[in-house]
Amino acid sequence: MAIKMATKGAIRNFHLPLPQAVYEALCAEAASLRQPATVVAREAIEAGTAADLDPSLESAALELLRGRKPRR
């Protein structure tokens, strides 16, 4: 995976404060997988989850935030 990412451009660091419970869950998952927490977090961010918004709902929310009436 590191090779794939390296070909897309430079890897940048990003500091993300996490609630204690999320931090502990991340650390526990990393320990169970025997991988660094940064690897687990990066893969989760890249893959997304079932909790992600669907595209039409996300689009409607963004339109509301921009002050437009959502399309139906």
What would you note in describing this structure?
It is a single chain. The protein has one domain. Helices cover 60% and strands 0% of the residues. It contains 4 helices and no strands.
Average pLDDT taken over every residue: 83
Strands, count = 0
The proportion of residues forming helix, as a percent range, comes to: 55-70%
The helix/strand series, from N terminus to C terminus, equals HHHH
User: What is the total number of structural domains?
Assistant: 1
Overall structural class, as computed from helix and strand content, comes to mainly alpha
Distance between the termini: 40 Å
Unreliable parts: none
**Strand content bin:** under 5%
Annotate the secondary structure layout.
Elements: H1 2-8, H2 20-33, H3 37-47, H4 55-65
Helix pairs in contact: 2-3
Summarize the structure.
The chain contains four helices and no strands. With 72 residues, it is mainly α.
Structural descriptors:
72 residues; mainly alpha; 60% helix; elongated
